[in-house]
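Lab notebook page, bench 4
Experiment: in silico fold of construct C2
Operator: M.H.
Input chain length: 294 residues
Purpose: comparison with the prior construct
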Amino acid sequence: MHLKNSATFYQIENMLKELPSNIYLKDSKGRYIFATHYWHHLEHPDDPEWTIRGKTDAEIRKDKANAQKAMEADKEIFKTGKGTAYTIEINADGQREFLEIIKQPLRDENGCISGIIGLINNVTERELLRISLEESAMMDELTCVYNRRFFEQYTASLEKSGKYPVSIISADCNDLKKVNDTYGHLVGDEYIRMTALLFRTNTTIQHKGRIFRTGGDEFVIILSETPLNEAENIIKQLQNEAVHFSVKQKNVSISYGASCLENKNTSFRKCLDNADKQMYKNKSEYKKNQRNPL
């Protein structure tokens, strides 16, 4: 039926382009029929005549992992007849962005799926706020390392998903009570902060480790893909670097213990207990030496 005043496909497409969201259509083969916007994540030549029409995600997306994810989601829609929604992260051209993808099946007059209609929203601001709030909930306010709450969450999944070997360093500040009694708790807090800063500035820990404050002056460092001998070398590095971290002319002093999860059959709790025992033994030796100096 010909309607004199009906909008043409071209007119509808132009109207949709005025919306901030990217709206697109795909055919039954997963090829684009049109898209209202060409975002910068696409791989296309600087050709004003270039078109997305007839191309698949694998052909146009720079991020091939997300292209594969998009095509798998499309296949699932054609298989089940159900729409889907998910958020992807893209790091392209020096930008970190998050896109919300919403897809629904298109059906013909017989109820058969003939294509997909999709909507892409840029939700970067929302996702960065969410991540910031989540990270704030995971961080210890005093030291800017992970807190006890996240330690429990992280270690609960470590045995299943850890990159072995995983080494554990148990660390405890020496002389904190003396610092508190001599200078007050504010200086004691600074002593704890300086200890955390020592850990945070170690380059190996930065690349492989996660630092947790598990108690008042107690820390645990978890190092992925790190054998025990490397963890022991890191402890030596920290002991050498401690001379650069001081409060009231007193260098931070820390007792350490280390243990290693060789594979998924090793108990994390047993490994942590071994590191703690070694740390407390070293702490006892330190106190003994302080009472009986040479």
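Observations: The chain has ten helices and eleven strands. The chain has a mean pLDDT of 90.
Next step: discuss at group meeting.
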